[in-house]
Predict the structure.
Amino acid sequence: MSSKPLTGTKVFLMLVAFFGLVIGVNVTMMKLAIATLPGTEVDSPYAAGLTYDREISAAQDQAARKWKVNAHIERRNDGGAVVQVEARDAGGQPIAGLKFGGRLERPTDKRADFAVELTEAGIGLYRGDAASVAPGQWDLVIEGEARGTRVFLSRNRVILN
């Protein structure tokens, strides 16, 4: 039985190969993680911080209006979805003449987000189509504008099957 002796050079080469493999796998996983999910909610946190006070003021103004805005999303058989928004003022009267826009946002991947154009289908009733919506969790973001100023904003988590 002839076996080769374990030398210091062999041990050194095994250690270098082991740690080289571990470091290589770690670098590969890190690159893949950064490329798929950068971890940022906004492109510029500084700019978002500057607009924070305006967002608080807009939310207070929206609450003071006491509007009742109901958004509903329904899945169609062809894989798309219909978004319907019904807007009423504090007295329960339909609100006409607003410009509503919607977005379906993936909570985990901003690259899958897309806009839904809503048009006024009746007095206080706005509808839009979203073609080929993948199943899963989405954030339905509804924004309403009047005379170029945002007067309504809501974000709701929905699950589409």
Remarks:
- Residues 15 and 64 are 68 Å apart (CA to CA).
